[in-house]
Amino acid sequence: MTKLSIALTTAAALVSSANAFAPSNSARSSTTSLSKSVTGFEEVGGKPWDPLSLGKLEDANDTFPNMFPKSQYLQESEIKHGRMSMLAWTGVWATHVGGLGLGMHIPGMPVESDWTKALGVFAAEQPALFGAILLFISIAEGESVGHSGDNWRNMSTKEPGNLGFDWMGLTKKLSEEQVARYKIAELKNGRAAMIAMASLFAMEAIPGSVPIMNVLN
Known about the structure:
Elements: H1 2-20, H2 27-33, H3 71-95, H4 115-125, H5 127-145, H6 148-152, H7 176-205, H8 211-216
């Protein structure tokens, strides 16, 4: 019973943390009003840093119709992968026994010092909980994939990143300005988390490729 309670509590925390900053329809107007003061790109002069012009691939649709994704698809992908990376990084950081993290451990969960093997150990020792997590991921991914075709063509009525699931009503407790600011905070932290996870995989694949990891470990 204790293990189940911990699992449910953890799952609820993950869901609420991911959806607390999910964009809401009411934030659209506030985003416009904040555009002059908060853009999300203050570090690079207030404009998106895109030296390869990847965000302008949709301009080639006149020549190659529907070959390149448009902005809705790119925004949805960035938000989704940022959220996954934030959860992944938090899991590694909180449970790692070395200098990389806090060395925390959830009672009842497997003990595995190598983060690259932890998922396999968890799946073998906790198959029911692992299956429940996969089911939750499938539902969330299915909701996103269901709009992929329309997102690709900028024809979706769904706002990128908004799963429409806020059962705790967290966004309703925030002002429109706060929601807009949290959207930007989520994007920035998601980008940092994606870089962090990429560094972990690079460190494992090419020893010494991430010097700071040598310091942490």
